[in-house]
Write a structure and sequence with these properties.
This protein has 386 residues and is of the alpha/beta class. The chain is built from 16 helices and twelve strands. A hairpin with a 2-residue loop joins strand 2 and strand 3. The structure holds ligand FNR.
């Protein structure tokens, strides 16, 4: 598929039908556009990162330190962006990052995103903290590829039940997020005293879970506060350790990916513990303020474990050329976080579709213009450190 055709389509619409894109095609400007439509609380939850914002700034700075070195006359008329990651076929090495409470961006929330992803053939990763349940998202996603992201609850019965529901719902790979065993220190939310989970928003998976509900004295609608407290007791799980991982293997027979890996030694431990993959990520800078830029740690991790693990990447990816850089530095696929949320805020499913098509078009054009017929040929040689 030539995603670059999207660019031609936009020009044709503009010149012959006098139709301009409803949302900007400038992917770096989406945050600004979304800020005009999002409620202050939603904007404060989605956009800022932890503490002073230093980690999100480091994520962007890391991309700016690499420049693409385009090669000429290499015959890149036909491009192939397809790939297979842990058994999941993908038309392009781009996935939807797990993001909770998407109803903050748009009333259709996760359902709109899952539909947009499925229509494009991209893999959707369902967050434990979604505003819609496993089953609702699976229905919206239909035949679309989907993975499940686990926030590991302290209650093992709920954990096993989540894994069983994910399996039954057609989620094929388990992504275990390790960097959020506690919520990061987020002043924008703290200043507003804003945490939607405490209003039972973003805990749909729990509120529809038999193991969770079995431990409540009364139905949720009779005592919603008790349900909130029950969730609040099982979400924080800072005691997790490497020794706990066999529990997941026992209850999940598909691939397992650890998300939130920043250190080379942790990447090695993931491989030593028989994991299938990792997501090199600092959660978009939302957890530890002053953490290393995600792209800064990618090359060292790729070199250390690239032959043992599938390496995925997120945090700070905004454009197609960012995706190009992450792939060149060793990622097999890239997860997109905030940009799709901005599209969702601006126009629901159509907005997510727009953002993803633009990003894929720019990736495709960047590959073609840099002399690559496929992203699989990318190596660090495609880049120049500055
Ligand atoms: C997230 N992220 C996230 N990660 C996760 O594993 N489970 C989750 O529920 C959430 N929720 C969430 C909400 C919001 C509003 C944001 C912005 C992010 C992190 C996400 O998966 C990904 O790591 C980052 O978004 C990547 O960084 P960028 O692309 O946003 O810079």
């Amino acid at each position: 598929m030539n995603y670059a055709d999207h660019q031609l389509g936009i020009y044709l619409q503009g010149m012959f039908a006098d139709q301009k894109p409803a949302i900007t095609t400038d992917l770096a400007a989406l945050e600004h556009a979304a800020a005009t439509v999002l409620a202050p609380e939603a904007l404060g939850y989605i956009t800022p990162s932890a503490g002073s914002g230093a980690t999100a700034a480091a994520n962007r700075a890391a991309f700016d330190r690499w420049r693409i070195v385009p090669r000429m006359l290499r015959g890149s008329a036909q491009r192939d962006l397809s790939t297979t990651v842990l058994g999941t076929a993908m038309p392009a090495p781009v996935m939807i990052a797990p993001v909770g409470i998407q109803t903050l961006a748009h009333p259709d929330g996760e359902l709109a995103t899952a539909r947009a992803a499925a229509a494009l053939g991209l893999t959707y990763v369902h967050s434990t903290q979604s505003a819609h349940s496993f089953e609702q998202v699976a229905e919206a996603s239909g035949d679309g590829a989907r993975w499940y992201q686990l926030y590991w609850p302290t209650d093992p019965d709920v954990c096993v039940s989540f894994l069983e529901r994910a399996k039954a719902g057609g989620y094929t790979t388990l992504v275990v997020t390790l960097d959020t065993t506690l919520l990061g220190y987020r002043p924008r939310d703290l200043d507003r005293g804003f945490l939607p989970f405490l209003h039972n928003v973003g805990i749909a998976n729990y509120l529809t879970d038999p193991a969770f509900l079995a431990k409540l004295a009364k139905p949720v609608d009779e005592d919603p506060r008790a349900a909130t407290l029950h969730w609040a007791q099982m979400f924080p799980n800072p005691g997790l350790s490497w020794a706990d991982l066999p529990f997941l293997r026992e209850h999940w027979d598909g691939p397992i990916v650890l998300k939130g890996i920043c250190a080379v030694d942790d990447a090695r431990l993931a491989a030593d513990h028989g994991m299938d993959g990792i997501v090199v990520s600092n959660h978009g800078g939302r957890q530890v303020d002053g953490a290393a830029g995600s792209l800064d740690v990618l090359p060292g991790i790729a070199e250390a474990v690239g032959d043992r693990l599938t390496i995925l990447f997120d945090s700070g990816v905004r454009t197609g050329s960012d995706v190009f850089k992450a792939l060149a530095l060793g990622a097999q696929a890239v997860l997109i976080g905030r940009p799709f949320l901005y599209g969702l805020a601006l126009a629901g499913q159509a907005g997510v579709d727009h953002v993803l098509r633009c990003l894929l078009a720019e990736l495709d054009l960047t590959l073609a213009l840099s002399g690559y017929g496929t992203h699989r040929d990318l190596t660090p040689e495609a880049l120049l450190p500055t």
